[in-house]
Amino acid sequence: MSATVDLKRMVREQLLGGGIRSRKVLGAFLRVDRALFVPPEARRRAYHDGPLSIGLGQTISQPLMVAEMVEALGLRRGQKLLEVGAGSGYVLALAAAMGATVYGIERIEELAASIPARFDLIGIPRPSLRIGDGSLGWPDASPFDRIIVSAACPEPPPALIEQLSDGGVLVVPAGGRHLQRLYRIQKRGGTTITAVSTPCVFVPLIGKNGFAED
Ligand code: SAM
């Protein structure tokens, strides 16, 4: 399916205009239509430059924020990626469109239930999905080349760093409940290299290595 005029405008104005340079990332955003990942009542605002409600108190993140996180992953075809906080499946679909084998964990079953059909509509291989506390990772399926956390943690969860392959990269918003910074952590020969960048605001990761439920 070719990208609509509105989707192309989103990519050009928000992502290219916002400094995203990776052709692979920009191409994935053109292939994976954000409109498929928002509820019908939000579809007319699907290309809005901000987060949108996906129901049950959760959100699909701002396109530029997602693009910055995916670009920071440095994802390559054939790599194995885990997303913690899969929500609507949008980030997982972008990673699958870039040729990754994708695994997702989501706490709310009702949200995860709609993900496989969305992948079918786009024509990309379905993800492996698990319902539960993703702050503990997915030990049985580890190691992962890339891990992305799409909800806020008090600190980068040690269990996720543990489950990275050598050379693997974790991208995670960490800090306070209401304001975080984006961490990029690369594992190399038993040590980690950490870079901290953009301030950001995510819904909390609720779980053992996350925040307590309100
Ligand atoms: N990446 C998603 C997308 O593209 O639609 C949006 C993610 S939304 C900002 C954060 C998600 O994290 C919510 O769907 C929420 O239910 C989920 N979540 C919160 N705590 C979690 C946990 N411990 N394990 C797994 N998912 C969790």
CATH architecture: 3-Layer(aba) Sandwich
Total number of domains: 1
Number of helices: 7
CATH class: Alpha Beta
Structural account:
Helix 7 links the parallel strand 6 and strand 7 (164-175). With 214 residues, this protein is α/β, with parallel strands linked by helices. The chain has one domain (5-200): Rossmann fold (3-Layer(aba) Sandwich). The strands form two sheets. The protein has a seven-stranded mixed beta sheet with strand order 5-4-3-6-7-8-9. It is built from seven helices and nine strands. Helices cover 27% and strands 28% of the residues. The structure holds S-adenosylmethionine. S-adenosylmethionine is lined by residues 54, 58-61, 84-88, 90-91, 105-108, 111, 133-135, 150-151, 202-203, 205-207, 210.
List the helices and strands and how they pair.
Blueprint: H1 5-16, H2 23-31, E1 52-55, E2 58-60, H3 63-73, E3 80-84, H4 90-97, E4 101-106, H5 109-112, H6 115-122, E5 128-131, E6 144-149, H7 158-162, E7 164-175, E8 180-188, E9 191-200
Parallel strand pairs: 3-4, 3-6, 4-5, 6-7
Antiparallel strand pairs: 1-2, 7-8, 8-9
The structure holds S-adenosylmethionine.
